Amino acid sequence: MYFSIFGGQSDRVKFVTSHLLDKIHILEGHDLYSAVLARVSKILERGSWSDRALDRALDFLEDFVERAATGHRGGRLHSRCDEDARGETSIDMVLGGSAEAVGEHTFASAELDAKIVDTGRASFAIGSASFLAAAEGGAQYATTDAFCEVDGADFVFTKTRTVTGKNWEETTTQVFAVDFADLTLRNPLIITPESSYRVGSYQHVSDGNVAEVDFDVEVRAEHTYADVYAGALTIEDSYSGSLIEATLAIG
């Protein structure tokens, strides 16, 4: 299973989400999962993918997994898709991007938070990455991008947003993925609303050339892997660049 996203061109975020939610409801043989994942999608969308919304979605899924696995509310967690692959979870996630600014005064920043947690009955991958670039004087060119790849999850929710101003640009991508121990789908269900906007605002850039990088990653499971590549570069009176790429895995 493989998933990849980049900053999109569509601004019909709610339409895309609603359209893909229809696919959740028609998953044959998985009505319980369908209802749960539809609820998670609504929590994230209504909460604008804020940290609070992500925490609420995680708490909801953890509670569902605990209750379903112990026989509460709808019976034990069980899948008819693959009887031989029950009881194991594994997720690989790559999250990252870059910001570049060209001009006399430039600013670039890259921020990333990501974690994968194995609760025994399910594994959760949660991450967000934000990249901002701005330039003032001279060429005044700014560009950003973000990407996310998730492998091994049953369900993947992502949201990518790019806003471009007169002399600046910011791209943010967020991901929420879950792999149930007792469910193996032939194909993962992926919901990927993307949006791009142009605005008329202009950002003042302080004198000089600044590049910043900040990241926080966490992996909790029996078998774990985490690797982060980060870089920041400035060239006097002409350039700032920041980038991060984080790879997290359990299994």
Describe the secondary structure blueprint for this structure.
Layout: E1 4-5, H1 13-25, H2 31-46, H3 51-69, E2 91-102, E3 105-118, E4 122-136, E5 141-151, E6 155-164, E7 168-180, E8 189-191, E9 194-198, E10 209-220, E11 224-235, E12 239-250
Parallel strand pairs: 3-10, 6-8, 6-9
Antiparallel strand pairs: 1-5, 2-5, 2-12, 3-4, 4-7, 6-7, 11-12
Helix pairs in contact: 1-2, 2-3
SSE order in H/E notation?
EHHHEEEEEEEEEEE
The rounded Rg comes to 20 Å
Q: Catalogue the unreliable spans.
A: 1-29, 73-86
| Strand residue percentage | over 45%
Mean pLDDT: 81
Number of helices: 3
| Envelope shape | elongated
Helix content: 10-25%
Q: What about the largest sheet?
A: 7 strands, mixed
Number of strands: 12
Secondary-structure content class: alpha+beta
Distance, first to last CA:
15 Å
Report what the structure shows.
- It contains 3 helices and 12 strands, in the order E-H-H-H-E-E-E-E-E-E-E-E-E-E-E.
- By secondary structure, the protein is α+β, with helices and mostly antiparallel strands.
- The protein has a domain at 4-13 and 87-250.
- The strands form 2 sheets. Strands 3, 4, 6, 7, 8, 9 and 10 form a 7-stranded mixed beta sheet that branches. It has a 5-stranded antiparallel beta sheet with strand order 1-5-2-12-11, with no helix packed on it.
- A hairpin with a 3-residue loop joins strand 3 (105-118) and strand 4.
- Helix 1 (13-25) packs antiparallel against helix 2 (31-46) and helix 2 (31-46) runs antiparallel to helix 3.
- The longest helix is centred in the N-terminal third of the chain and has 19 residues, at 51-69.
- The chain starts with a strand and ends with a strand.
